[in-house]
Design goal:
The structure is a homodimer of 407-residue chains. The first copy, chain A, is α/β, with parallel strands linked by helices. Helices cover 37% and strands 14% of the residues of chain A. Chain A contains 13 helices and twelve strands. Chain A has a seven-stranded mixed beta sheet with strand order 2-8-7-6-5-3-4, with helices on both faces. In chain A, strands 9-12-11 form a three-stranded antiparallel beta sheet, covered by helices on one side. In chain A, strands 1-10 form a two-stranded parallel sheet. Chain A starts with 5 loop residues before the first helix and ends in a 14-residue tail after the last helix. Chains A and B meet through α1, α3, α5, α6 and α9 of A and α1, α3, α5, α6 and α9 of B.
């Protein structure tokens, strides 16, 4: 038998993957599993946009242009206005999800062996994208103690070297829910300019900011038109993960041209998803406002429940729909597996994403867990009942007795 | 301004790309352009499948599993039965078009610097996929004189070395329309077995075979279950290029696992396209029969017209919807550009794909052209009127006078 490639064996796997089979077994045994492990919202995809898609009388489902239909790019460009960003449709490229967008950018902007700085913990698949493109990830650590705020400028500067080509952020952040402010981004901009770097920001959660702050897109940074690239997607904001539609937005014509060269190889982004994406962008703001309110209520409930549990260290996430919490356990991988394999509370258990895989630095995050609040309040509350009960009886808890509890 | 990567500058570009701006200009000047340059069929996407898609009441357009919905994989597996192939749904992975399938396979089966043998001329984007995955393409030349038949076994064996990991075919072939017979594939199978290689076959045109021959899928090769991988797509057969839905089919569990590892990074293939793909697979055979008849008539017309033109060397393509012809010109790149820039016949001209970019060996194909018969007979005939007239007046024709004409 011909063997598969060595690099395929080395693809960084999602922290959730190993647990999936345990979840299946738990379900097969009749237990309900609350899935707080993935970023798949339960909220309905806007029915009005789905209906418009149904009403199209499309005779031939043909290739779109490489960069997407002009009408779709126009809709995405217009949708940036509410964030104070004026972009031309030609500065928007439609991609097969933000996932493809990030891959296209790594190939377009980085030569093999060049480095990208990413604050950790970060979305685990960035590691895989970097491996495919042979780009080196240089992590700089953010900490739960200050709600995973953006590291200081000195932390970024410390790891910059002659191979550094860019800084990559996710704002608001998956997995931490951290929200990066305008002030912090403006400081970072000075560094980006000084070292002539790319500043690539994954803004797929920008519609989910809960503290009344204005989201500040890096596309508003003045004088950084050639450095700034934004990645976006309809997946999270419109609960349309399956559309596989994202965008790359930049005013740098060379980057657009390079992305187009790679993009032409795969011909075009998905056609039906593009049409849906266009209609989603054209919805009025009611949908987003309601979705944001819904997520805010969930966040508040989650935070209240977590802070009420002994030994759990949590913070109030400023955006996205994740919370990254520290649990009183030595090994969160084991705890998450134990939840699925051994634990049951009123016929149910929950699935969480262990924290270590979100760090590039070995040894970090071993007692941390990402919780996606993608279930309705009732289910989320039930899941928190399970968690509280589980932490109380987990045999490898670091809390030996009530008196030793940190909280 | 940060510079884009060197590798982005080196992405092999499609032969058509350079011509696109000339085509736009011709249209802007009011000329009709017959597009015989791309594999975008004009035939309607089956209305029955589009209607089924409309009728689905989908509340949340969520991620599918990495490998695609089980129902979709079942439909694709069942659709192989008419080719005498029995495969399990677990042996089918849904991909974002055949383009993604090929890329996933190059990463999964080849380490950087390893080699893949491909008969040339071949689909130009294979070069780009190989560049992305850092795989070396070893071309072996097929010739117009025998209708671009599969090269002999000795030709394959000559280029096999310790870095060779696989052979890649496209059957029926784009750009040549060549159809590879069961006998030839069975001979090749012996070689594949002997050298423990992968045999990867892009079968996206297998429904278009015009000579009454049975299409022989390599999935029917006995004893090669671990070596054979088939790539497929709904794009061409169902005129659904914009769905971006393809499949990888193999009985090699390690390859499926490796593909899944890479596939997980991009989460899932397009959801709406998957549903459409499922419905397309479930159509009765009428659509395919009619489409095949239509393409056969176009092929016959094209062949009749080409062989009636002075100095044009053509052959009757056995499958797909392309013909690769030799023209009495020194430089087909120039001729194709001249068609768009300088030529007009009854207010129209045509766009063709110059041949050289379909070869990996420099200097080959410079007087050859790919013609996609993706227009209806009336338009195709009109386009051939243009071509005949153009060849007669092209100032750089290699035919100096009628008496020198080869045909």
């Amino acid at each position: 038998m011909p063997s598969i490639s060595q690099r395929a064996l080395e693809v960084p796997l999602s922290p959730i993957r190993k647990l999936a089979s345990y979840a299946e077994r738990a379900k097969a045994m009749g237990r309900k599993v609350y899935h707080l492990n993935i970023g798949q919202p339960d909220i309905e995809t806007p029915a009005a946009a789905m209906q418009r898609l149904r009403e199209i009388d499309l005779k031939v489902l043909e290739y779109s242009p490489t960069e997407g239909w002009l009408s779709t790019r126009k809709a995405f460009a217009r949708s940036m206005k509410k964030f104070g960003v004026q972009v031309d449709p030609d500065e928007v490229t439609v991609t097969t999800g933000a996932s493809e967008g990030i891959q296209l950018l790594l190939f377009s902007c980085f030569n093999p062996g060049e480095e990208i700085i990413i604050p950790e913990p970060f979305y685990a698949n960035y590691n895989g994208f970097a491996q495919i493109a042979d780009v080196v990830v240089r992590p700089i650590t953010s900490y739960i103690e200050n709600g995973f705020a953006l590291p200081g400028i000195a932390d970024f500067e410390r790891v910059i070297n002659e191979r550094t080509r860019g800084i990559f952020l996710n704002n608001p952040n998956n997995p931490t829910g951290a929200f990066y402010s305008r002030e912090m981004l403006e400081q970072l901009a000075l560094l980006v300019k000084q070292y002539n770097l790319y500043l690539i920001v994954d803004e797929v959660y920008r519609d989910f900011c809960y503290e009344g702050q204005d989201f500040f897109s890096v596309l508003r940074l003045e004088g950084l038109e050639d450095n700034v690239i934004v990645v976006d997607s309809v997946s999270k904001k419109f609960s349309a993960c399956g559309a596989r539609i994202g965008t790359i937005i930049t005013r740098n014509p060379d980057v657009l041209e390079a992305v187009s060269r790679y993009g032409k190889l795969r011909l075009s982004p998905p056609g039906l998803g593009q049409l849906l994406g266009e209609f989603l962008c054209e919805l009025d703001d009611n949908y987003m406002d309601e979705a944001q309110d819904e997520y805010r209520r969930r966040r508040d409930l989650l935070y209240r429940r977590l802070t009420g549990m002994k030994g759990v260290q949590a913070y109030l996430p400023g955006g996205a729909f994740y919370c990254f919490a520290k649990f009183p356990v030595e090994n969160a991988d084991h705890f998450c597996q134990w939840l699925l394999e051994e634990f049951e509370h009123e016929g149910a258990t929950l699935m969480l994403a262990p924290g270590a895989a979100f760090y590039a630095t070995p040894g970090l995050g071993t007692d941390e867990v990402r919780i996606a609040y993608v279930l309705n309040e009732h289910d989320l509350d039930k899941a928190m009942d399970c968690l509280e009960q589980a932490l109380a009886i987990y045999p490898y808890s670091t809390i030996k007795s009530y008196s030793e509890a940190k909280v």
